Fold Xylanolytic transcriptional activator regulatory domain-containing protein.
Amino acid sequence: MRPQRETSEAPSIPLSFISLLDDTRALSLNSVLDPEKGLLAAAENNNTELGTDSDDRMWEGGDDPIHLRLLSQPSAEYLFEGFFKHFNPLVGLLDPQLYTFSYTRETSPLLLSTILAISARVLQPESYVAVQKHSDTLLAQVLLTCDAAIENIWAIVCVYHWKNVNDTRGYTLLGFAIRMAASAGWNKFRGGMDFACKPQVIDHPQVNLARQQRDQERLWLALGNLDRSSSLFTGRPVAMEMINKEIGARGWLSCETWAYPQGDSKVVGTFELTQISCPVLDAMTNLREAQDPSSASTSFQSFRKAMEAFNVAVTEWGQYWSSKFMELPDSEPFQSHLTLFFQDYTRLYFNSVLLHRLLFIEKSDITYSGAVEGTMQLCFSCALGVLQHMIKMGHLDILYFLWDTAHLMTGYSAMMVLKLLNQSRHQRLVSTRNAFETLTEISDLYSIAARSLHTEEEVSVLNATRKARSSNPAEVQARLFGAILARLKTNYKPATPGSNGSSLQASSGTVLTSMEGGYQGEIANIGVGDEGTSHNLFPVPMAGQAESSDLTPRRETDYVADGDFMNSMFTLAGLVSWDEPGIFIESR
């Protein structure tokens, strides 16, 4: 294992919208080592004595998944390469120049097993279960011994991102990772990046040392970003102190000698996004804590003012970073879409909070109707924007490799589209046609991806009962999109020939037209050729995969009957039912 250093810094990555009911347990080993997941049992049944140095056993195999014959070396190398080609670029976690296959295999059986399990779920499903169980066993050992090796903390961050739907350990595991990093002194940044920026040629050990130092700074920033993102979107307390702004500054990116440009840019960009959101969060907190009508009114106006500045700043952020990523070496087309995906989701979430407040106030003060209409149009545009960017990434085969929080963000956006369409007093403000076309395309893409990712066991279970809850994030979202689309078809019918071609007709007979100058969907014309070359991971077209799948396609009636499932997803996201007025169950 490489020695722990006293230098430090830095956080990374995405915005989450995770159930408060399922994922707010206390920070305790009991909650992480869930007996139902077999972690503690696996650790207890393992013949290895916890707390002993495994270096002496490494050359005999030890916990190495290859020596344990869970995988052949060619298969392991294939999966490892697949992770860095398809998964890692989405979030920019691990520096591929540092974490080579041989380096990772030598330094950390846990990180190696975690990477192989993540990749196997998509690229080699028949190996997934065995490698995943082994990874969980090693994770249990690390948590029980509080081993703060940087590779172990990276492994936890990877688990946090690519977990199954029913795995609710993410928030608690993140807390352990933060505490272990802090206990190792990573928060004591000493400005050591000056050494890493020196351009002179140095020998191999020094090169690795420079990359390792930069790697630690990136991981500390990544942990801070995840911590603050969780606080912004779920109301959980922040576990970390404010990150040294020298690390989160764009100047940190100017050090290019030992940098990982893609990963470094992602953590700095995400840090900026959390910083932009903080004043809005503070205003929301003051509004919730207002004790009397006068202070509540003052706090609300402060919140609206903060939102005005926020909307401008986030738009500028998206413009800068979407262009920045396209300038990086080996940049791929999806990077720009992913940046704008975060931009639109962040705007959607906080403007949803504002809309919830405005709808409540409008009941007693009609002068707020104009503000309601403007905010509703903005929310609708952002929600469709999130879905559109996901569709474009879907055409590049990105859906197969997304982390589960990105799926949740997409699902939240689709649910908001349905909610906005059902705000009866303001239906004329949104385009049902655009919503229908967008939801149809993203539902198709997710359905194809879900069927392609099913294991034989999942196929048999899901075909036996439609009430089964898949652990596959793509399957859950495909089911949600299908239910939303079925509800939309039930409530609205195609417009009559003489009506506006960009509208649908409500079942009551009222024609809902597109808002003038509003969001105009271009989904039908989007193709892979417009965005660049796809990964070409699957030689058979995705549509062909869907046709050859053993999973019985869901019928329209199945989705119509999915009302309870759809309502449970609304509740999970903290939203009131799709057909009820208002936005959130509880004010944010």
